[in-house]
Write a structure and sequence with these properties.
It is a single chain. With 425 residues, this protein is mainly alpha-helical. The protein is built from 18 helices and six strands. Strand 5 and strand 6 form a beta hairpin. It starts with a helix and ends in a 10-residue tail after the last helix. Bound molecules: NADPH dihydro-nicotinamide-adenine-dinucleotide phosphate. NADPH dihydro-nicotinamide-adenine-dinucleotide phosphate binds next to helix 14, strand 6, helix 16 and helix 17.
């Protein structure tokens, strides 16, 4: 394998610049992020929910394991694999790859969400105790993490049989730890089944909202009815997930699909991190009920609505522009030329700040935490983490765009000086 690594390094290593802390990051992140997930769930389920407890609250070993968990995780993955293969919806082409070809992707994630919803209603009608997900959270997170590791090992090994042009530019450094973490192969497929695209939006995102529903049902078990705060968190996050799956085609132009290889960073991000940390507010509310006045609720709903509007409009505008710049909705926008032949928008949403979509996303993230009140920091984990993630992501994107567009990108930055927050950053 070593000679393979060296061989592929000579044949197709495109960049040695390492992201996410290089080798040190590639060692620490796969250890500490799964532990963080377990710690966060444990804290949210504890009466104190204090992030300042020292030593940190560790779950007992019997709380980490339940034989039902691996069956549920594998059954869940199998269900979504079957839904992925159903001949519903259109088939769309991704961006042009380095060998000049374009891959085809089924756009049927929204149907997957709807069918899952119907199946869940059926299970609940048959008496399935969905609230039990509260007790199962730690074992489920353990199993999802184990699955992410196994999948990443499989992806790493199989990447040595991939042709050089199928490798991600940044995941092919020859450093096994780093390449395992960041991902070597860009679009690993089994036949027509695209593993990265499948994991990106379906099992994790839909799993997240199902866990949220489980927390709502747990609240019903404990207190007779769901609280307004719980309904708000469930509804906001369901809107976000529904939007992502309704606009599934847009994922084909994101950094994850176009630029990043499929390694542990994405397997764990998609299957372990998103479903078990993005909905922590709902887990927190089960143990720490909150009262919200109608006025406060209206203000939070407005914030989520404004954030959603900015997020959706800006993403749709750029996607439309990249797919068809002559479309009437974008044809009149001011643009600047680049040496690659692609143009950059300098008016409309993308003339407001350089990442208006991140701004809207952050506003929504804040709205998801506010229903949890101000007594604890823990339910604000998502908005704090997400702000750091998007600021880091913006810097990565900026570096890539400067590499791609050179002087034209500098001109764009001079025209639109603020990155995410107008007049601040
Ligand atoms: P973006 O959708 O912001 O895409 C960035 C790319 O857009 C650039 O690389 C460039 O690519 C193109 N671009 C940048 N500026 C312009 C311009 N002025 N005119 C035309 N094209 C431009 O990237 P992401 O994939 O990071 O984000 C997509 C969405 O997903 C965002 O709303 C983000 O908030 C969300 N997201 C959510 C996450 C979550 O965990 N909830 C995680 C990550 C993202 P090119 O020129 O090559 O087309």
């Amino acid at each position: 394998m070593r000679s393979n690594i060296q061989d592929s390094k000579h044949r197709s290593s495109h960049t040695t610049e390492q992201e996410f802390g290089g080798t040190l990051g590639a060692i620490c992140i796969p250890i500490f992020l799964p532990l963080t997930v377990l710690l966060l769930i444990t804290l949210c389920q504890s009466p104190d929910a204090s992030v300042l407890q020292w030593p940190p609250l560790l779950p007992s070993s019997e709380r980490l394991w339940d034989p039902l968990a691996p069956m549920l995780v594998l059954g869940w993955m199998a269900l979504h694999a079957v839904l992925y293969l159903l001949p519903f919806g259109k088939v769309s082409e991704g961006l042009v790859l380095r060998d000049g070809t374009r891959l085809k992707y089924p756009i049927n994630g929204f149907y997957g969400l709807c069918i899952t919803g119907v199946l869940l209603m059926l299970f609940m009608w048959l008496g399935a105790p969905l609230g039990f997900l509260f007790e199962l959270l730690l074992p489920l997170a353990m199993c999802a993490t184990a699955l992410s590791f196994l999948l990443a090992v499989y992806l790493y090994v199989r990447s040595f049989w991939a042709p050089p042009h199928a490798l991600a530019l940044g995941g092919n450094t020859g450093n096994p730890l780093y390449d395992f973490y960041i991902g070597r192969e860009l679009n690993p497929r089994i036949g027509n089944f695209d593993l990265k695209y499948f994991c990106e939006l379906r099992p994790g995102l839909i799993g997240w909202v199902v866990i949220n529903l489980g927390m709502l049902m747990k609240e019903v078990e404990l207190r007779g009815s769901p609280s307004l705060a719980m309904i708000m968190v469930n509804s906001f996050q369901l809107l976000y997930v529904t939007d992502a799956l309704w606009n599934e085609e847009a994922v084909l132009t994101t950094m994850d699909i176009v630029h990043d290889g499929f390694g542990f960073m994405l397997t764990f991000g998609d299957l372990g991190w998103v479903p078990f940390t993005y909905g922590l507010q709902a887990v927190f509310l089960v143990m720490h009920p909150q009262h919200i006045s109608p006025l406060k609720a209206a203000a939070i709903i407005t914030l989520n609505g404004v954030g959603y509007y900015i997020f959706r409009k800006s993403n749709s505008q750029k996607n439309q522009f990249r797919r068809d710049p002559t479309h009437p909705s974008v044809a009149r926008l001011e643009t600047i030329a680049t040496a690659t032949g692609k143009r950059l928008l300098v008016s409309g949403w993308w003339g407001f700040v350089r990442h208006p979509n991140y701004l809207g996303d952050m506003a929504m993230a804040l709205a998801w935490s506010l229903p949890c009140g101000f007594s604890h920091l823990l339910p604000y984990f998502y908005v704090i983490y997400f702000t750091i993630l998007l600021i880091h992501r913006e810097a990565r994107d900026e570096r890539q765009c400067r590499g791609k567009y050179g002087l034209a990108w500098d001109t764009y930055c001079r025209r639109i000086p603020y990155r995410i927050f107008p007049y601040i950053y």
